[in-house]
Amino acid sequence: MSGSPKYSSVRIGVLYAQREAIERRRRAEERRARERKRAAQRAQLAARRAELARRDAESAARRDAERAARLALARAEQSQADERGLDEVRALIEEAQRSGARADASALEGQLAALRGRVARGEQLGDAVERLRGRVVSLRPAAVDSAADDPASVLAGLERGFAATGPDGAALDADGHRRCTELLDQLRVAAGPDRRVRFDALLGTVEHALARHTAAVTEARAAAERNTRAEQEREARQQEQEQEREAAERQRAEAAAAALEQALTEAAERLDVVRPAARAVVETAAELGDPGLADEIGDALRTATEELTARSAAEALTAVSDLEHRLPDAERRLDELELAYQRSRDLVAALRDAMTGEGFAFEGGEDEGGGFRLHFTRPTGARYETTVGVEDDGTPVLVYRVEGEPDVTLHASRDEPVCDTTEALLERVHEALGGDDGFVPGELTWDGKPPGRRAEPLPRGSSWRWSAP
Q1: Alpha-carbon torsion 150, 152, 155, 160, what sign?
Q2: What is the model's pTM?
Q3: Among 376, 371, 404, CA closest to 388
């Protein structure tokens, strides 16, 4: 029997199995309670994130509303300022009309009305009011008293009015400018002595031509200003659209950054909820000899941590969700490991008591992470090394290695290997392992044991028996 390990599978006793079932149900309820607690923590964190997001949205909306209110107030104040400026221009036009100006006041009034319409639509006039004011003021010197007695004074007034059309008058109304120049030359000749009749006859023609030229220049300038304003408005719209696009891009970028931070925060908070339990599974599974479970949860935990460190929000959330999904089953498997470990410890204690009760001396043992190795000696010097392990299906198994027993190489008449005394002793040890209230080992077997053979147990209290070959 020396050098040939002997094996025995161990069945759990009925009462022990009942106690273990009670413990398994208690652990299952604890797992459910832990998962409910984790779910409640996740819900609380989600509610807090939602509240913070709501507050942020309210703050952003409030800032936008305040910004819009300030802009509206500034525009209203500018519109009021434009209205006041237009009222002043209206007063200047009326004053020019009362002073006898020959300028086409209707054109100026039309421009004034157009500006009032723009103000009513909420448009900003910019320097349009001042330009109109300048044109009105420049026309006022053109007012001439046609009934004046001094031809020189009348001529001077007409020349001032002609000059008031500006240096661009010739370009804006070439025919009118040339006509006025010719008529003024003729009127200047008629302003000589003894030519008053000719002067008075020509004066109306000059005034009419000058009025038409002034109106044409004014309208040309207005058209040019309209074109300029249209171009400016187009450029302003383009600039505004560009600003709106930039603002929209900034908002999208800010929203994306905020969403990233929110997702990273969610992943980090959810990972904080499960990290302690995951670490406990990894550590305990490694201690109890299940590296597969330790690696599975350890890898999932490491992946979630690395994705968070890399600020990969979507990947981090996926990794955390995967860990959350794996954890309940991992804890269940860990509970089974711990139950099996406790079962092995109880079997070790029962085996130690049974073997010392049969005269063995316990020499110590080792916890090998899911299994135990025990050392015993007999008074004869024989050494027994007993391993308490667990099969893949969780069934406990005992493995004995014996050295130094005197009956190790007994032979039957047909040269079949037998170990009557040692086998019988171990069978009696097995009988003392508790039965229904503890453990029930099966048949002791070893390599080379004849089929269907079972040793007869030694009577209790009998001496160590051996037979010579």
Answers
A1: negative
A2: 0.63
A3: 371
Six-digit token pair at 391?
A: 């099969």
What is the rounded CA–CA span in Å between residue 371 and residue 332?
A: 20
Pairing of the two strands 383-390 and 396-403: antiparallel
Question: Residue 395, Cβ neighbours under 10 Å: how many?
Answer: 15
User: What are residue 434's phi and psi, to 5 degrees?
Assistant: 115, -20
Q: What single string gives the DSSP state of each residue in 375-438?
A: EEE-TTS-EEEEEEEE-TTS-EEEEEEEES-TTTTEE-TT--EE-HHHHHHHHHHHHTSBGGGS
Mean pLDDT of the chain: 82
- Tell me the Ramachandran region of residue 288: left when phi exceeds 0, alpha when psi lies from -120 to 50, beta otherwise: alpha
Q: Which of 113, 217, 234 is nearest to 162 (CA)?
A: 217
- In whole angstroms, what is the distance from residue 294 CA to residue 48 CA? 33
- Tokens 């929110």 locate to 262
209-231 in b/e form (b: 16+ CB < 10 A) is bbbbbbbbbbbbbbeebeeebee
Strand partners, 7: 399, 445
> SS3 for 229-274, per residue?
HHHHHHHHHHHHHHHHHHHHHHHHHHHHHHHHHHHHHHHHHHHHHH
| CA–CA dist 204, 227 (Å, integer) | 34
Q: Which two tokens stand for residue 434?
A: 């508790």
For the stretch 91-147, pLDDT in tens is 777 776 666 554 456 667 777 788 888 878 777 777 777 777 776 766 554 444 444
Q: How far is CA 88 from CA 56, 82, 92, 104, 133, in A?
A: 48, 10, 6, 19, 8
pLDDT tens readout for residues 289-347? 899 999 999 999 999 999 999 999 999 999 999 999 999 999 999 999 999 889 999 99
C-alpha count within 13 angstroms, C-beta hemisphere, residue 251:
10
Kindly tell me the burial class for residue 304, based on how many C-beta atoms sit within 10 Å of its own C-beta (0-12, 13-18, 19 or more): buried
Q: Which of 307, 305, 139 is nearest to 215 (CA)?
A: 139
Residues across the chain? 469
Euclidean distance between CA atoms 240 and 238, whole angstroms: 5
